[in-house]
């Protein structure tokens, strides 16, 4: 009987391939982890910025004062705060326990959209990630920055 050669991988070829994949994965893991942490900060910074813009837009649209109220770890956008007609229009809360917002405080947005100046720091406390800074100006305009200066 003639022998036929069967196709396939030898056990040695399989182990070499698995070893190479494992080495590449181990080299890429720290970079991937850092990327995930940075994306958490950027996502939360963008969400916080959106809430500020939303509050300003609602104040101008409704021609009424809007309040940004801190409640535990949330920042609530309220209209008619402290009255029976009080309504929460939106809220912000960090999406991950490692992310925190410094200098979060109660603020009032006037019906013209003006608000007190403020600088919020969005951080995860890790020196390997880049913190973000949300600068709010008295006109109500706001900008996200990587630098600590709001000038």
Automatic annotation (TrEMBL):
- Keyword Cell membrane on this protein? yes
Parts of the chain that traverse the membrane? 12-32
Q: Which Pfam families would you find in this protein's record?
A: GspH (PF12019), N_methyl (PF07963)
Cellular location(s): Cell inner membrane
Domain of life where this protein originates: Bacteria
* Xref: SUPFAM superfamilies: Pili subunits
- Give the bilayer topology: Single-pass membrane protein
Among InterPro entries, the record links this protein to:
N_methyl_site, Pilin-like, T2SS_GspH
Keyword Transmembrane attributed? yes
Please provide the Gene Ontology terms (biological process) for this protein.
protein secretion by the type II secretion system
For this UniProt record, the keywords arranged alphabetically read as follows: Cell inner membrane, Cell membrane, Membrane, Methylation, Transmembrane, Transmembrane helix
GO CC, alphabetical? plasma membrane; type II protein secretion system complex
Domain General secretion pathway GspH: residue ranges: 45-140
Q: Which family does it belong to?
A: Belongs to the GSP H family.
Query: What protein am I looking at?
Result: Type II secretion system protein H
State the species of origin.
Photobacterium aphoticum
